[in-house]
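Revision sheet: structure tokens.
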Amino acid sequence: MLTIAVCVGSSCHLKGSYQVISRFQALIHQWELQDKVELKGVFCLGHCTGAVAVQLNDGPIESVTPDNVDEVFRRQVLPQVEVE
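Predicted:
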């Protein structure tokens, strides 16, 4: 199972973490990946200067905005899960 961790700390909250989470939730449901992707909120991933900090499993931390969630999902999430 792929885990998407989205920072909900104060800095990321101000940059739109809840919008990012909402969009990830919608995309997970749209692609019917509820049994393959776990989405969770976490506190501080240590990358407070960029956009919202997002980490897939133990991979690098991405800077995600509400405007580029779809691109990150297509580029980073879909290749890591089997879409049927």
